[in-house]
Amino acid sequence: xxxxxxxxxxxxxxxxxIETITGFGSIVIALSLGALMLPIxxxxxxxxxxxxVMSSYLTWKNRQHIDWPILTRLxxxxxxxxxxxxxxxxxxxxxxxxxxxxxxLIVWFAGKELWRLFGGHVAAPHGLxxxxxxxxxxxxxxxxxASGGPLLVYALAGIQLDKSRTRATLVSVWLTLxxxxxxxxxxxxxxxxxxxxxxxxxxxxxxxVVVGDFLHHRLDxxxxxxxxxxxxxxxxxxxVFRAIL
Length: 245
Prior knowledge:
Strand content: under 5%
Helix content: over 70%
Oligomer: single chain
Distance between the termini: 20 Å
Structural class: mainly alpha
Number of helices: 10
Order of helices and strands: HHHHHHHHHH
Number of domains: 1
Mean pLDDT: 90
Radius of gyration: 17 Å
Shape: globular
Number of strands: 0
């Protein structure tokens, strides 16, 4: 048997390598792989502070591209409310409930992206009320899994932002929300209990960024994304079946 915390180190290295190459998904990938061997509530106090380190650097680097009106008036109020709601819902769902919800979220996200990549499907824009509802739901998944990205990107379909502004704005969202979650984990005692593990995994984050930067211009990103989404799809299905059985 593989030591589950050693497995998590591998998942962290892989996840931050992929994020450096493609610009998405460090927590989604690390959490989905880690959840195959460890309970989700044990993973989040390790993964969220590591994400804060990464997103702090990226937010500062891309600060001039942040769309402040969309960030402060549309995204953050709803995402913060949803994140706090999700944090307090977590104990009520239990480990199996969390695994099923995470697995379903990953299957939906990976399946949607594979459909888009293979079929050329373009997401239709949403009305303002629908977008607000999806953003609130994205906040809930952020509070539960620190993985609000799939729903938030879906909610923002049709909003006219160029690639630079979209990435900078989303990174600033993750920084704000993950700092909030880190403080909540500090107050409930889970952050202190996992501080030594966070320190051990920091080199994995740095190594992932270095390896990802090296591979960024040497891989076909389209094929690489398809492979990543395929792995996520299988992982999500495994999580759901494991929780049910």
